[in-house]
Amino acid sequence: MKSLVALAAGLMLAASTGMVAGVAMPSAVQAQSNDNDYTPLNSRIRRDRQFPTAPLHFVDPAQLGAATRDRGQSMEDQFARCIYDRSNEKALDLLARTDFGFNRFDQIGLANNEVMDRYPIQTCLRRVTRSHQTGARLRYTPASMREWYLQEAYLDAYPDGATWAVAGNVIGERSYPLSANNPAVRSVMDFSDCVVAQSPSAADLFFRTAPGSELESQAISNIVPLLSACIPDGQQLDISPQTLRLWIGESLWHAANNNAPAPAENPQEVQ
Question: Which string of DSSP letters, residue by residue, matches the chain?
């Protein structure tokens, strides 16, 4: 994997995400590489793509419920839910045609002045501000549109946590509609896919938690060891919880919709 520290810094700016609180993620003693290293059982499956073969632990429903209640109170989450509910098909279409490198509306054939007509931004902003009896100004970007739609599509499809994860399944390779030749995007997605593969339930709970909440702090404590296992040996990643949530959401959505049983090994390939 290329230098994640440099790539992460660049992508945090590109995604226009604010630094909420710095979280330094130490590298593990035996950091995971991005090549075709074998698992301890000599499997040809990449370690950063396969779920644990032991039965997977799913999070306490009470924690999931608490996370859902906390997230549902914020204006931004209510706005995201509104635009998704009013245009599910358009939301899923945008997700299918874009990837984490989505940074210009003309990448999908839209002019900036056409976005408000195509998506229910104004309607939902009025609805949310009216319910909170306040005013608000919204800055939307291609990245934020994808973030909002991906969040709500995932939470809508999987309300009970990472129940889609099957022990031993393998995460399929990604397709990049917009970023096939962008090594920065690919490196960050490789990193976050590695994190999700180790513990889908821990990643899922973190993604659901409200920013700044006590439950988020607990979830970060659980997820830090997963991060260090995916950082190249000798490297250190300094990242905000907000940016990490963005990356993890991308990988949860991909893993939930692109995992399958590991293919049988070819005995002739085993040394």
Answer: ---HHHHHHHHHHHTT----S-EEEPPPTT---SS-PPPTT--SS-TTTB--SSPPP---HHHHHHHHHHHTTSHHHHHHHHHHHT-HHHHHHHHHH--TT---GGGGT--GGGHHHHS-HHHHHHHHHHHTTS-------HHHHHHHHHHHHHHHH-TTSSTT--TT-EEPPP--TTTTT-HHHHHHHHHHHHHHHH-HHHHHHHHHSPTT-HHHHHHHHHHHHHHHTTSPTT--EEE-HHHHHHHHHHHHHHHHHSEEPPPPP-GGG--
